[in-house]
Amino acid sequence: MKVKGGITVLIGELSRRTGVRAHQLRYYEAQGLLVPVRKASGYREYSDDDVLTVAQIRNLLEAGLSTQEIGFLQPCVTGTGPDLKPCPELLTALRARLQGLDEQIELLARSRKVLHDYIDATERHAPSR
């Protein structure tokens, strides 16, 4: 069982503290990123540690990582910023994600150029007013 620190709160309070909607918190739980303690009543209990975990998840999502990638990297995450401790294959995973983003950017740049070419060609053939 995961050891939790600080005062425990229910999902609504965690949502208020983090600015993340309850359904998103349940999604993080379903993805294995957030592991609340379950009360006998079935309610989820969260701690101050979970507030930090949600902040880390949000930051990694903002970096463009998938929840699957975050699950892989989560043991390496420390603090609220982009602080990662060296874990096996960490840099390989981050570099692979960066390469994927670079390839997407290149594809978008090519698509943008072709679209501009179509617009320019169409404007050249349009009747002048």
What is the element layout, followed by pairings?
Blueprint: H1 11-18, H2 22-30, E1 37-38, E2 44-45, H3 48-62, H4 67-73, E3 77-78, E4 83-84, H5 90-125
Antiparallel strand pairs: 1-2, 3-4
Model description:
The protein is mainly α. It has two domains: 1-86, Multidrug-efflux Transporter Regulator, Chain: A, Domain 2 (Orthogonal Bundle), CATH 1.10.1660.10; 88-129. The protein is 58% helix and 6% strand. The chain is built from five helices and four strands, in the order H-H-E-E-H-H-E-E-H. The chain has helices spanning 11-18, 22-30, 48-62, 67-73, 90-125; strands at residues 37-38, 44-45, 77-78, 83-84. The protein has a two-stranded antiparallel sheet. A hairpin with a 5-residue loop joins strand 1 and strand 2. It is elongated. The model has no long low-confidence stretch (mean pLDDT 87).
CATH class of the largest domain reads Mainly Alpha
Strand order, largest beta sheet: 1-2
Count the E strands: 4
Order of helices and strands: HHEEHHEEH
Low-confidence stretches: none
Q: Output mean pLDDT.
A: 87
Please tally the helical runs, counting DSSP H or I stretches of 4 or more residues. 5
Pfam family, one: MerR_1
Protein name: MerR family transcriptional regulator
Keywords: DNA-binding
Structure keywords:
MerR-type_HTH_dom, mainly alpha, Multidrug-efflux Transporter Regulator, Chain: A, Domain 2, 2 domains, single chain, two-stranded antiparallel ribbon, 129 residues, MerR family transcriptional regulator
Q: Would you kindly provide a brief summary of this structure?
A:
InterPro entries: DNA-bd_dom_put_sf, MerR-type_HTH_dom, MerR_fam. The chain has helices at residues 11-18, 22-30, 48-62, 67-73, 90-125, and strands at 37-38, 44-45, 77-78, 83-84.
